């Protein structure tokens, strides 16, 4: 997350999965004090370049999940003409007009689109790994620790 420039993903042979996630502090076994983790407002926006089974993540802390906050990161880090896979979040509807090939998955109906074969499981699995690592390092106590990890 520290590196801000020079990170570009996508292209002819690499597709990009995008999604946002809330890294909140969870209590183990539902015990103890909450310590403000559930009131955290920042989201983590992830872009995962997938090419030949290898992944390259770009993660950014964003204040909100709106189009105004997410799309500038896509334009900065994803090459024009790339194939982007995402859920049907309203903020992503503008991507085809910006020059990207956009495939969506309706998670309330299925996890893999039966017509295109598009899915976001690469990024969903990556979220699980990132959250487990941060949880083990106890790096989710506040926003400054989260941004360092």
Automatic annotation (TrEMBL):
Q: Boundaries of each ISXO2-like transposase domain copy?
A: 8-142
InterPro entries, per the entry: IS1016-like_transposase, Tnp_ISXO2-like
Q: Which Pfam families match?
A: DDE_Tnp_IS1595
Q: Which SMART domains match?
A: DDE_Tnp_IS1595
The record ties this protein, via PANTHER family, to: DDE_TNP_IS1595 DOMAIN-CONTAINING PROTEIN, SI:DKEY-17M8.2
This protein is called: ISXO2-like transposase domain-containing protein
Gene source species: Mugilogobius chulae
């Amino acid at each position: 997350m520290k590196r801000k420039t020079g990170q570009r993903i996508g292209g002819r042979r690499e597709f990009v999965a995008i999604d946002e996630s809330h890294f909140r502090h969870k209590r183990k076994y539902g015990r103890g004090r909450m310590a403000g983790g559930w009131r955290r407002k920042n989201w983590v926006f992830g872009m995962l370049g997938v090419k030949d089974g290898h992944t390259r993540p770009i993660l950014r802390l964003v204040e909100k999940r709106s189009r105004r906050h997410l799309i500038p990161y896509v334009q900065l880090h994803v090459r024009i003409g790339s194939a982007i896979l995402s859920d049907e979040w309203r903020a992503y509807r503008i991507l085809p007009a910006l020059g990207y090939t956009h495939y969506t998955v309706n998670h309330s109906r299925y996890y893999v689109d039966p017509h295109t074969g598009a899915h976001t499981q690469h990024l969903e699995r990556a979220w699980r790994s990132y959250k487990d690592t941060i949880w083990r390092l106890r790096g989710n106590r506040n926003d400054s620790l989260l941004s360092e990890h």
